[in-house]
Design a protein that fits this description.
Helix content is 27%, strand content 26%. It is built from 10 helices and 17 strands.
Length: 342
C-alpha cells in the first residue's frame, strides 16, 4: 500500500520542475489520488501563473472523482488573493474531502490560515508529512519570510595550500576544472542574485551570467564604493540586470541600478535592499574580503568550497571557514567539493 510519504515525495519531485521560474514564489507540486491511483498532478510552473493545486485539479478528466479523492501537496495551500485566486477555494469548490500537506507555509498571509479554512469547510487535513524534506526544498522561500533577507550561499575555490588566487594576477584565473565550472553555472541559474566586490571585477572581469547550462541569469550585485570600475567591464553589459552599491549616487542607467548605501552598515543594507526587491536568494562569489565580511557578521546559510588539485605556494589567503556543519563531500574530476550548512 502506498503511503502518504510516497505521494508527498511525488509532490516534491514535481515541485522541482519549477525551480528556475517560480521565484519569489515557492516550488510546489501536487498529486490527486483516488483509490490509491494518481488521477491528477501538477506543479507551479511560473511566477504569476496557476499554482500546483489548480493545475492538478484541472488535469483530472472526471471531476466527479474529486469528491472521493485525496489531494497531496508539499506546501500548505494558499488562502489569499495574490497573482491568482486562493487554492483553498478551488479545493472546497470540488468537495475534495481530504488534503495531506508536507509543511506549513510561513508566509504571513497563509501560515496556518490555509489549513484553518479547509478545516472550517469540513476538509480533513493531515500535515507534517516529510516535513524536513519539504522545508529543505523551499529553504530560500522560508529564509526570506522568517529572517527577512535572502538565503545566502558563500562559494569559493582554493588551492591545496589554502590560497584563493595568485598575488597580482595579470589575467583572469580559474582555480578548478571545467566540470566544476559548469556546476557553478548551474548554481547561478538556481539563485536570484550573485554578488562580488570591486576587486573581483578588476581581477577577473567576470560576466556573472549562466553560459555553460540552460537557465536564467541572476541579478548581478556589485560593491563599488567610489564607482571606480571601468564602465566597459563585462558586468555592465546588457546580458543581465546589474545593481551597484556605492557611496555616491542612486540612479538607473540602462540595465544598471546604482544604489547609494551606508558603508558603515554595508552588508545589512545590501540585504535589506534585496529583501525589498523580493530577491529570495544570493550566491556570493566575491574575494576573501567580501566573503569574510559576511562570515564576520554571521550572514550566511550555506557554504560551498572547492579545493583544487593545485599548489600556488603563495597568493591571496582563502576565507576562514567558520564553525559550521559539513553535510556533503564529493569529488569532481580532481576537485574536492565540500558543502556546509547551518
Amino acid at each position: 500500500m502506498k503511503t502518504h510519504e510516497y505521494f508527498i515525495d511525488k509532490c516534491i519531485s514535481l515541485a522541482r520542475k519549477g525551480a528556475l521560474d517560480v521565484s519569489p514564489n515557492p516550488m510546489v507540486g501536487c498529486v490527486i489520488v483516488n483509490d490509491g491511483d494518481i488521477i491528477g498532478e501538477g506543479y507551479h510552473k511560473k511566477y504569476g501563473k496557476n499554482h500546483a493545486e489548480v493545475n492538478a485539479i484541472h488535469s483530472v478528466r472526471d471531476k466527479s472523482e474529486l469528491k472521493n479523492s485525496i489531494l497531496y501537496v508539499n506546501l500548505e495551500p494558499c488562502c489569499h488573493h495574490g497573482k491568482t485566486p486562493p487554492c483553498t477555494d478551488l479545493i472546497v469548490k470540488y468537495n475534495i474531502p481530504k488534503v495531506v500537506i508536507g509543511c506549513i507555509d510561513t508566509f504571513s498571509k497563509v501560515s496556518g490560515q490555509g489549513i484553518k479554512k479547509l478545516k472550517d469547510n469540513s476538509v480533513e487535513v493531515i500535515y507534517g508529512v516529510l516535513e524536513k524534506d519539504c522545508i529543505e526544498l523551499n529553504k530560500r522561500f522560508f529564509c526570506y519570510h522568517t529572517k527577512k533577507r535572502p538565503y545566502i550561499i558563500l562559494k569559493w575555490a582554493k588551492s591545496k595550500d589554502n590560497f584563493i588566487a595568485p598575488i597580482n594576477q595579470e589575467k583572469p584565473f580559474w582555480m578548478t576544472s571545467e566540470k566544476s565550472k559548469k556546476l557553478v553555472h548551474s548554481w547561478r541559474a538556481e539563485e536570484d542574485a550573485i554578488l562580488v566586490g570591486r576587486k573581483t571585477v578588476v581581477a577577473d572581469n567576470p560576466s556573472l551570467t549562466v553560459r555553460m547550462c540552460e537557465g536564467k541569469n541572476p541579478i548581478r550585485i556589485i560593491i563599488d564604493k567610489e564607482l571606480s570600475l571601468d564602465k566597459k567591464s563585462t558586468v555592465f553589459d546588457d546580458q543581465a540586470e546589474t545593481i551597484v552599491f556605492n557611496n555616491i549616487k542612486s540612479a538607473i542607467i540602462d540595465k544598471t541600478t546604482y544604489l547609494k548605501t551606508d558603508f558603515n552598515n554595508l552588508n545589512e543594507g545590501i540585504l535589506n535592499q534585496l529583501y525589498n526587491r523580493s530577491i529570495l536568494s544570493l550566491i556570493i562569489e566575491g574575494g576573501t574580503i567580501t566573503i569574510n565580511s559576511f562570515i564576520e557578521k554571521n550572514l550566511y546559510d550555506e557554504i560551498r568550497v572547492f579545493t583544487a588539485d593545485k599548489l600556488l605556494e603563495k597568493g591571496i589567503n582563502s576565507p576562514e571557514l567558520p564553525d559550521i556543519n559539513l553535510i556533503k563531500t564529493s569529488i569532481i574530476n580532481n576537485d574536492k567539493l565540500e558543502v556546509y550548512k547551518r
